[in-house]
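Q: Convert this sequence to C-alpha coordinates.
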Amino acid sequence: MTLRADLAVIADSVAPGSRILDVGCGDGALMAALRDGRGVDARGLELDAGNVAAAVSRGLSVIQGDADSDLADYPDASFDYAILSQTLQTTRRPDMVLDHLLRIGRRAFVSFPNFAHWRGRTSLMWGGRMPVTRLLPEQWYDTPNIHHLTIDDFRSFVKGRGITVEGAWFLSGDKRTTSAAANFFAEHAVFLLKS
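A:
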Protein backbone atom coordinates (compact mmCIF):
# COMPACT_ATOMS: atom_id res chain seq x y z
CA MET A 1 0.00 0.00 0.00
CA THR A 2 1.25 3.47 -0.86
CA LEU A 3 0.86 6.02 1.92
CA ARG A 4 -0.01 9.66 1.38
CA ALA A 5 3.24 11.67 1.33
CA ASP A 6 2.91 13.19 4.81
CA LEU A 7 2.01 9.81 6.28
CA ALA A 8 5.06 8.24 4.60
CA VAL A 9 7.29 10.86 6.27
CA ILE A 10 5.78 10.01 9.65
CA ALA A 11 6.01 6.25 9.04
CA ASP A 12 9.71 6.57 8.18
CA SER A 13 10.39 8.50 11.40
CA VAL A 14 8.55 6.46 14.05
CA ALA A 15 10.87 4.22 16.03
CA PRO A 16 10.14 0.47 15.74
CA GLY A 17 8.16 -1.00 18.63
CA SER A 18 6.72 2.35 19.70
CA ARG A 19 3.27 2.96 21.14
CA ILE A 20 1.33 5.50 19.06
CA LEU A 21 -2.03 7.23 19.19
CA ASP A 22 -3.22 8.36 15.75
CA VAL A 23 -5.80 11.10 16.28
CA GLY A 24 -8.04 11.57 13.26
CA CYS A 25 -6.66 8.30 11.90
CA GLY A 26 -9.04 8.10 8.93
CA ASP A 27 -9.26 4.56 7.58
CA GLY A 28 -6.16 3.51 9.52
CA ALA A 29 -3.69 3.46 6.62
CA LEU A 30 -0.82 4.87 8.70
CA MET A 31 -1.60 2.65 11.69
CA ALA A 32 -1.64 -0.47 9.51
CA ALA A 33 1.66 0.47 7.87
CA LEU A 34 3.29 1.10 11.27
CA ARG A 35 1.89 -2.11 12.75
CA ASP A 36 2.96 -4.24 9.79
CA GLY A 37 6.27 -2.54 8.98
CA ARG A 38 7.59 -1.43 12.36
CA GLY A 39 5.87 -3.59 14.95
CA VAL A 40 4.18 -0.53 16.44
CA ASP A 41 1.39 -0.81 19.03
CA ALA A 42 -1.08 1.55 17.35
CA ARG A 43 -4.34 2.99 18.68
CA GLY A 44 -6.64 5.36 16.83
CA LEU A 45 -9.31 7.97 17.44
CA GLU A 46 -11.55 8.91 14.51
CA LEU A 47 -14.68 11.04 14.18
CA ASP A 48 -16.16 9.47 11.04
CA ALA A 49 -18.03 6.19 11.69
CA GLY A 50 -17.29 4.87 8.19
CA ASN A 51 -13.56 5.39 8.68
CA VAL A 52 -13.73 3.72 12.11
CA ALA A 53 -15.39 0.69 10.51
CA ALA A 54 -12.75 0.58 7.75
CA ALA A 55 -9.91 0.75 10.30
CA VAL A 56 -11.45 -1.92 12.54
CA SER A 57 -11.89 -4.19 9.51
CA ARG A 58 -8.09 -4.00 9.12
CA GLY A 59 -7.77 -5.40 12.63
CA LEU A 60 -6.85 -2.04 14.14
CA SER A 61 -7.79 -0.72 17.58
CA VAL A 62 -9.76 2.42 16.73
CA ILE A 63 -12.56 4.12 18.65
CA GLN A 64 -14.96 6.77 17.47
CA GLY A 65 -14.28 10.10 19.11
CA ASP A 66 -13.69 13.81 18.68
CA ALA A 67 -10.23 15.34 19.09
CA ASP A 68 -11.80 18.53 20.44
CA SER A 69 -13.52 16.81 23.35
CA ASP A 70 -12.12 13.31 23.94
CA LEU A 71 -8.35 13.75 24.28
CA ALA A 72 -8.71 14.89 27.90
CA ASP A 73 -9.57 11.29 28.81
CA TYR A 74 -6.11 9.96 27.89
CA PRO A 75 -3.45 9.78 30.64
CA ASP A 76 -0.21 11.76 30.49
CA ALA A 77 2.72 10.22 28.59
CA SER A 78 0.72 7.13 27.69
CA PHE A 79 2.18 6.94 24.17
CA ASP A 80 5.60 7.44 22.59
CA TYR A 81 4.02 9.43 19.77
CA ALA A 82 0.70 11.20 19.33
CA ILE A 83 -0.03 11.79 15.66
CA LEU A 84 -2.36 14.35 14.10
CA SER A 85 -2.24 14.25 10.31
CA GLN A 86 -4.25 16.68 8.21
CA THR A 87 -6.64 17.27 11.11
CA LEU A 88 -5.34 20.31 13.06
CA GLN A 89 -7.06 22.73 10.69
CA THR A 90 -10.42 20.99 11.22
CA THR A 91 -10.48 21.18 15.01
CA ARG A 92 -12.37 23.89 16.87
CA ARG A 93 -9.49 24.54 19.31
CA PRO A 94 -6.20 23.56 17.69
CA ASP A 95 -4.29 25.09 20.60
CA MET A 96 -5.97 22.78 23.11
CA VAL A 97 -5.65 19.77 20.83
CA LEU A 98 -1.92 20.41 20.47
CA ASP A 99 -1.56 20.74 24.27
CA HIS A 100 -3.22 17.35 24.68
CA LEU A 101 -1.05 15.74 22.00
CA LEU A 102 2.10 16.88 23.79
CA ARG A 103 0.69 15.74 27.14
CA ILE A 104 -0.42 12.30 25.90
CA GLY A 105 2.62 11.55 23.73
CA ARG A 106 6.27 12.00 24.56
CA ARG A 107 6.50 13.46 21.08
CA ALA A 108 3.88 14.58 18.58
CA PHE A 109 3.76 14.52 14.80
CA VAL A 110 1.53 17.18 13.25
CA SER A 111 0.93 17.53 9.52
CA PHE A 112 -1.25 20.13 7.86
CA PRO A 113 -1.90 21.81 4.50
CA ASN A 114 -0.11 25.11 3.98
CA PHE A 115 -2.72 27.68 3.02
CA ALA A 116 0.04 30.12 1.99
CA HIS A 117 1.18 27.91 -0.90
CA TRP A 118 1.65 29.93 -4.08
CA ARG A 119 -1.30 28.26 -5.84
CA GLY A 120 -3.66 29.36 -3.09
CA ARG A 121 -2.25 32.86 -3.08
CA THR A 122 -2.56 33.09 -6.86
CA SER A 123 -6.13 31.81 -6.86
CA LEU A 124 -7.18 34.32 -4.25
CA MET A 125 -5.21 37.25 -5.68
CA TRP A 126 -6.00 36.85 -9.38
CA GLY A 127 -9.20 34.85 -9.34
CA GLY A 128 -10.70 36.38 -6.22
CA ARG A 129 -11.88 32.95 -5.13
CA MET A 130 -10.95 30.49 -2.43
CA PRO A 131 -8.51 27.97 -3.87
CA VAL A 132 -9.60 24.50 -4.94
CA THR A 133 -6.59 22.29 -5.62
CA ARG A 134 -5.80 18.61 -5.89
CA LEU A 135 -4.87 18.57 -2.20
CA LEU A 136 -7.62 20.99 -1.11
CA PRO A 137 -10.47 19.74 -3.30
CA GLU A 138 -13.47 21.09 -1.38
CA GLN A 139 -15.34 24.26 -2.19
CA TRP A 140 -15.47 26.98 0.47
CA TYR A 141 -18.97 25.91 1.55
CA ASP A 142 -18.22 22.24 2.16
CA THR A 143 -14.64 22.25 3.41
CA PRO A 144 -13.92 20.67 6.80
CA ASN A 145 -11.05 23.18 7.21
CA ILE A 146 -12.06 25.87 9.69
CA HIS A 147 -8.56 27.23 10.45
CA HIS A 148 -6.46 28.22 7.45
CA LEU A 149 -2.97 28.15 8.88
CA THR A 150 0.34 28.59 7.15
CA ILE A 151 3.76 27.15 7.87
CA ASP A 152 4.89 30.51 9.24
CA ASP A 153 1.77 30.68 11.44
CA PHE A 154 2.57 27.26 12.88
CA ARG A 155 6.26 28.06 13.43
CA SER A 156 5.30 31.22 15.29
CA PHE A 157 2.64 29.38 17.28
CA VAL A 158 4.93 26.63 18.57
CA LYS A 159 7.77 29.08 19.26
CA GLY A 160 5.45 31.28 21.32
CA ARG A 161 4.39 28.27 23.39
CA GLY A 162 7.97 27.11 24.03
CA ILE A 163 7.47 23.88 22.08
CA THR A 164 10.61 22.25 20.70
CA VAL A 165 10.65 21.40 16.99
CA GLU A 166 12.72 18.23 16.62
CA GLY A 167 12.03 17.80 12.91
CA ALA A 168 10.25 19.46 10.00
CA TRP A 169 9.53 18.17 6.52
CA PHE A 170 7.97 20.10 3.67
CA LEU A 171 6.13 18.58 0.72
CA SER A 172 5.16 19.85 -2.69
CA GLY A 173 2.82 17.30 -4.21
CA ASP A 174 4.29 13.98 -3.18
CA LYS A 175 7.90 15.19 -3.16
CA ARG A 176 9.95 16.70 -0.38
CA THR A 177 11.09 20.27 -0.78
CA THR A 178 13.58 22.35 1.16
CA SER A 179 12.77 24.52 4.15
CA ALA A 180 13.90 27.59 2.20
CA ALA A 181 10.76 29.56 1.34
CA ALA A 182 8.64 26.60 2.47
CA ASN A 183 5.81 28.98 3.38
CA PHE A 184 5.52 29.81 -0.33
CA PHE A 185 6.50 26.55 -2.06
CA ALA A 186 5.31 23.72 0.22
CA GLU A 187 1.77 22.41 -0.04
CA HIS A 188 2.03 20.41 3.18
CA ALA A 189 4.22 20.35 6.26
CA VAL A 190 5.05 17.73 8.86
CA PHE A 191 6.46 18.72 12.24
CA LEU A 192 7.86 16.53 15.02
CA LEU A 193 7.33 18.29 18.34
CA LYS A 194 8.33 17.82 21.95
CA SER A 195 7.12 19.86 24.92
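The longest strand covers residues 105-113.
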